[in-house]
Design brief:
By secondary structure, this protein is an alpha/beta fold. It is 37% helix and 24% strand. It has a seven-stranded parallel sheet with strand order 3-2-1-4-5-6-12, with helices on both faces. The protein has a five-stranded mixed sheet with strand order 8-9-7-10-11. Strand 10 and strand 11 form a beta hairpin. Helix 4 runs parallel beside helix 5 and helix 6 packs parallel to helix 7. The longest helix has 16 residues. It is elongated, with a radius of gyration of 19 Å. The protein starts with a strand and ends with a helix.
């Protein structure tokens, strides 16, 4: 089989550059293109040079429609509005779309589901192997421990992150809710300020920290009277997310249309 031709959305950004390097370093795929928003200084520049590699002979474009007709898949860790537009194009082109973007609205999610009727979409709030193992463990522990154990999810990211809680924190909260057999929307507590009263039994709390250059840290705390269980993952390098995204793209090649997760990719 020929190498999978992959394009990187938002190729000039920090995550975009990581993705270009990961594709270039992974056997079975090649960097076949990349996009940036119209007016970006990166338009026309070589993707390899932008990512600190030797020139690859592939330039950044602001025309995703033309690009999607020439590739096998896209790696998309951008912003919700852009990802929703890209996924519609991926559905038209019948190509693989790996989506690590977070912060989608309910309406956005419906558009992604509709696109998955025509394209193989791998969507996850976090592409790292370790994080997805943490999600699976959270589900199992929540199922094993009853509501005597309060669940709190604590996450910290760099000062530039714009959405909160993080997509990974929400993945963990959803896993905990599934383990308990409850709806996250009904039991989620996102903000505590002032005289809030006692903690509700069975609630799932979120705490969001932002600062410095922290790549990503997530902890799930199960706290009962006299004991506490903590599950934690700390990311020190964005390359782990990029490698997971490339792994997902290669896994999805040849798969039928559908909305897949990293659980599918990793067989968890």
């Amino acid at each position: 089989m020929t190498d999978m031709r992959l394009a990187v959305m938002g190729a000039a950004g920090r995550m975009g550059q990581e993705l270009v390097r990961a594709v270039h370093e992974t056997e079975g795929c090649v960097v076949a293109g990349g996009t940036e928003a119209p007016g970006s200084d990166a338009i026309g520049k070589d993707l390899g040079t932008l990512a600190g590699l030797d020139a690859l002979g592939v330039a950044v474009t602001d025309d995703p429609l033309a690009l999607f007709a020439e590739i096998d898949g896209v790696l998309d860790f951008t912003v919700p509005a852009a990802s929703v537009a890209f996924v519609a194009l991926a559905a038209q082109a019948r190509i693989v779309h790996v989506m690590g973007t977070t912060g989608f609205t309910g309406e956005d999610e419906e558009k992604i589901k509709a696109a998955a009727r025509h394209a193989a979409i791998v969507k996850a709030g976090n592409m790292s192997l370790g994080v997805n193992l943490l999600v699976a463990l959270t589900r199992q522990v929540a199922k094993a421990l009853d509501a005597d154990f309060d669940i709190e999810i604590v996450e910290m990211h760099h000062r530039h992150k714009v959405d909160a809680p993080s997509g990974t924190a929400l993945m963990l909260g959803q896993a905990a809710a599934e383990g308990r057999g409850i709806g996250l929307d009904e039991r989620s507590v996102r903000v505590r300020d002032g005289h809030t009263g006692a903690r509700g039994r069975g609630d799932i709390g979120f705490a969001t920290l932002r600062g410095g250059s922290v790549v990503g840290e997530h902890s799930v705390i199960f706290a009962a009277d006299g004991e506490r269980v903590e599950l934690t993952h700390k990311a020190a390098d964005r390359a782990i997310f990029a490698r997971g995204g490339v792994k997902a793209a290669l896994w999805a090649r040849g798969k039928g249309p559908g909305l897949y997760s990293m659980d599918d990719v990793l067989g968890i």
